[in-house]
Fold these 4 entries.
Entry 1:
Amino acid sequence: MQGLGRALTYIGQHAGDWSGGTLGSRLTNLDRDIRSLIEYEERLAGKVQFAMDALVGLTGIAQNDIVKILTIISLVGIPPTLVAGIYGMNFKNMPEYDWAWGYPYGWAMIILSAIVPLIWFKLRGWF
C-alpha cells in the first residue's frame, strides 16, 4: 500500500502533463483512498499486536502456574526420598534396624516428611 501510494503521488504530480487534467482529480481521490486504507491497516496491525501481546501474557501466566505446581511437587518429594535413601543404606550400626517397630518407624518418617511440606505450602497459600 505504501508503494502504491507513493506511485500515485508521483503520477498525480505529472498527470496534467499526460492527460490534460482529467486524470489528476481521479488520482487525487485514489491517493486519498489509499492513505485511508494505510491508516486502517495500521490500526488493524495495532489491534493484532495487542491481541498477540495479551496471548503471550496469558501463556506466561499459565506457564508460571504449571512451574509453581511442579516446584511444589518436587519439594514435597525430596524429603521422603532423602529419608528412604538414608534407611536404604543397610549399615550394621543403624539402631532402627534392631527395633521391633523400625520398619513402621521408617514409613512414618517418610510419610511425615511428605506431609509436613504440604501443610507448610498450604498454610502459606501456595496451592
Entry 2:
Amino acid sequence: MRTVFMFPVVDRAETVACLDQHLAGGDGSWTFAERVYVVIDDEETGCLFRDWEPDEVALLEAALGHHPTWAVQVDISGRIDGTAEVCDLAALLLRRGGVAFDDYSKHAWTLQEIESGAEIEGLRFFDFRAYYERHHRPTA
C-alpha cells in the first residue's frame, strides 16, 4: 500500500462534504476509482505524524504557515498504478490551496507542481517508479 497525505486549506467540514459529494462511501471512509481508499486522519485521535520525521513536519508547517491537526490520507493499492487517481484527488482537494506529501520525496507538493509535472530532486509527485529505480537498482 502506498500513501499520500493531502492537507487542504479549506476546513475539515468542507473537505468531508467534498469527499461525500465526489467519492463513494462516507461516514469517514471513502473509496475512489479502483482500490484507492480515503480517510481523514487526525493528530489527536488518529495516527497522523506518528511516523513522520521532524524535518518533514517542519517542511509541512513552513509550506502551510501553520501546524495542521488533520489530513486526508489516501492509500493506493499496489495492484494498480494509481497515479491518475491520486492526481485527480489532488485536483479536487487542493484546488483552493494546500499541499500533498507522498511516500517518495520530502517535499510539500502544491497543485500547480503536481499538474505541471514539476520535478523536485529528480522526482515528480507520486513518482514511485523513479524512486524504485533510484533505490533498488541492481549493483554491478
Entry 3:
Amino acid sequence: MGCEEAPRFRGDAVGRHVVDAVENLVALWFAAVEDVTPRLPARQVRALRIVRRRPELNLTALAEQLDIGLPTASRMCDRLEAAGLLQRNVQPDDRREVRLVVTADGRRYLTDVTERLSAYVTTAFGGLPPGQRTMLEEILRAFHEVEAPRDTRPGRETPADR
C-alpha cells in the first residue's frame, strides 16, 4: 500500500491555523527583541520575564522553568548580571539561598520589548474589521487566563507531575 494520509479533522485545521498565527506572532516578538538594546538571545529575554513574574525565584527554579541545566542557567545569569539587567541577592537568613531579581534597567528593557511588540501586533491586527478584532481580543484573553498547558511532549515531566 502507498502512503495514505489520515483524514483531517476540524481540530487539525484549528490547530494548524493557530500554529500559523503563533509563527507570525513569534516573528513579531523576535523583531521587537532585536530592536531593543542590548540585543539578547530569546532565552535570556525569557529568563528575565520569568524572574520578573516570580521574584522568589532562585537559580535552580529558573533552570527548571527554562528546562536547562544549572551550569547553563548560571552562565546565563552571569551574562544578564554583567549587562546590568539581573541581580543575585544572597538571603541573610540562609546564605546558600540566592534569589534572582530583575534590576531597574532590566525592567526598562522588558518594558521596551513589550511596548515594541504591542505596537507591532497592533499594526498587524489593524487590518481586521472591528468585530473580528474584538473577537480575537476575547479569545486571546480567555486563552491567557486558562491554566498553563502541560508539556505533552513524550517523556516530559512537568512540575505538576512531580
Entry 4:
Amino acid sequence: MSSVPVELPHRGGDGTIDPHVVFRVIQGYKYFGSYGITNIVGGAEGKSCVLQNLVRGPEGAGDYSFADLTELKTYAADQKVAPAKAFDTLDQAAKYVNEGSEFANVQRMLMSLEIKN
C-alpha cells in the first residue's frame, strides 16, 4: 500500500532491497496490515505467507526493527489481531494509508530514524 525509501545502514544480499518505510497488507479472512521499516523482500510476485518488518543490519551490527509488528501474517477468525490492522477491503486499507493522520504520523517518525554506529 505504501513503500518509501529511507536512508539507513543495512546489509544487502539475496532477498534484500534498500530499506523502505512500508505499510503492507496480507490477505486472510480479512486484509491485515502492518507498518515498519524493512529491507527484506516480501515474496515472489507479491505472494508470501509472512512479511517481515526487519532490516538486516550492517555486518557485525545485528538486525533491527521499528514497526508495530516484527512480522505480518494472516490470522484465524478467533485469534487476537492487534496490533495488526484489520480491514474488510483493500479500499479501506488504502484509505488508512492515504487519508488518515495515524499512518502519516507514524511514517514521518519512521522516516526520521537515524541509526548510528
